[in-house]
Amino acid sequence: QSAILLEVNTGAVLYAKNIDEQLYPASITKILTALIAFEECNMDEMVTFSFDAIHSINWREDANMGINVGDSITMEQCLYGLLVGSANEAAYAIAEHICGKGNVDKFSDMMNAKAKELGCTNSNFITPNGIHDENHYTSAHDMALIAQAFFSNELLSKSYS
Predict the structure, then answer these.
(1) How far apart are the first and last CA of the chain?
(2) Per residue in 25-58, pLDDT tens?
(3) Are 125 and 111 in contact (CB under 8 A)?
(4) Are the beta carbons of 2 and 17 closer than 8 angstroms?
């Protein structure tokens, strides 16, 4: 339905199709979550998985890394789980780590502020992991801007590839 090919170094649009159409981003949301985590945290910080983080997902259907309530891993390990394993509970735990338990809405505000800072105009982020919400959307153009920032970061692009 929508596509964009953006040259990452210059930002030049090489191909565009319905690039401003608002669509559900699903797990590519995690690219923005990782970008914020990298900017806000040290990679050796310990992230503890709360009951809410673990039970925020459907274990049979949603991608996860099988971590238990009370377990702690480093932020870098969370990012590997988030970006390589698409671990939905990791996204929630990262949001809680940055904004405090029960403050995932505050993390959504951070996501939307970061998106605007990057020049996004057709996005509204509600969840840190992209689990469906009808008010959670972005466009191909906005996601390309977020990806451009993500891939300009050596550690993040290393963990994702």
Answers:
(1) 25
(2) 999 999 999 999 999 999 999 999 999 999 998 9
(3) yes
(4) yes
Closest CA to 123 of 40, 12, 32, 34: 32
Residues in contact with 152: Cβ distance below 8 Å, sequence separation at least 6, in sequence order = 8
3 state SS of 72:
strand
Pairing of strands 46-48, 13-17: unpaired
pLDDT value of residue 158: 65
Closest CA to 151 of 96, 94, 125, 143: 143
Is the entire prediction scored with pTM above 0.85? yes
C-alpha–C-alpha distance, residues 126 and 112, integer Å: 9
CA distances (Å), 47 to each of 18, 70, 97, 137, in order?
A: 39, 10, 6, 27
Q: Which residues of 5-16 are buried (b: 16+ CB within 10 A; e: fewer)?
A: ebeeeeeeeeee
Active site residues: 27, 30, 86
Residue 120 per-residue DSSP state: -
> Can you list the residues of the chain whose pLDDT is less than 50?
160-161
